[in-house]
Structures are given as structure tokens and as C-alpha cells.
Amino acid sequence: MDNRENERDLDGSRENENEEKQKPEIPPINDLRMELAREEARYEFRRILLNIAGILTVAAAIAVLMLTRLLILLQVNGSSMIPALQDGEIVVLHQTKDVETGDIIGFYYGGKVLLKRVTGSPGDEIDIDQEGNVYVNGVVIDEPYVSEKKPGKCDQNFPYRVPEDMVFVLGDNRAVSLDSRVRSIGCVEYDQIVGKVIFRAWPLNRIERMD
Length: 211
Hints:
Layout: H1 2-22, H2 29-70, E1 71-75, E2 90-94, E3 104-109, E4 112-120, E5 125-128, E6 134-136, E7 139-140, E8 160-161, E9 166-170, E10 188-189, E11 193-202, E12 208-209
């Protein structure tokens, strides 16, 4: 009898121990609060990141739109602006009509954009002698960007006065350039001007500001 009672007591103790083991451990309320605070902080951090990403995306889109309205990438085609610009190089144009003598500008002609240098402004008197020296209002101008002065192709009558709302343009490579010396091209109206070259973007070894 005693043995059976002892066995029952042992079985009861084992059952109590198993029940105690199976009872889930309830963490302290402070631990729960801290975990909840951590989760809220993580959620808030993700929300802030998403907001920042959204703001940056909108800002980038606005910047691209502004740049496309202000700047143009253009590939140089031909050798008329050697040595300043080489065939195949990529330049950045600032879209503006505010150009002055010495600026390299892009302008529409024959469905293309040509690149030439402004040599005369409205009202200026232009003259070119047989050696290729250019005179503006009776004064020969310094042209360090021209490697070799040549008359090139020219059927314009000189001296020539630049009409109002127009500019007189020349290519730096005078021997091959077709520009305002040729009557079929003539002076460039301000409405034709796309902008002025401000930067050479390619090739890497020739990157530089040009304004």
C-alpha cells in the first residue's frame, strides 16, 4: 500500500513539474513597453526614410526638368571650330539669347544646329582683309583661338554692317568654315540662337569650362 501511495505521490509531483514547465513565461511589463517602443521607433524610421526618398525623387525630377529647359547636350559635327572644338566632342549649351562677342553659340540653320563664334554684334562694322585679319569697327581683333588665319570661302561684300537683332559669326577654322562670310548663311538672327557653349563634357581628357 505504501509503495502505491509513494508512486502516486511521485506521479503527482512529475505532473506538477510538467505543468510548471509548460506555463509560458510572462515578461515584465517594462520589457514589453521597451519592445513596443523599439518597434514604434523602427516604424517611424522606415516612414521617415520613405518620406525622404519621395522628396528626393520629386526634387530629382524637378532638377531634370529644369536642366532640360536650361541646358542642352550637343555633339560637335565637323571641323569648322578646330582647335577649340574637335569633331565628335560633346558640349553643353546654356539656352540663352544673351550672347556677346567671343561666345561660341549654337544656332538653327537648315534643320541642324551649327556652332560658330560671335564676332560682331548689331550695328558693328565688319571687315576682313586678304590675309584673313578681322576688323570690328576699324580695329583688328585679337583671335588667339584661331590657329591659322585664312580668307576661306567668302562671297560677302566688305566692309559689312551687322543688321539689328542679328550677330556676325565665324568658325575658328577659317579655311573650311561656312559662316557669315557666305551670303547663303549670313548673319544669325537672335531667334535662331539656341544658346552658348559653356562646358565641354567629352572626352574626359578635354573636360573644361568654356564660358
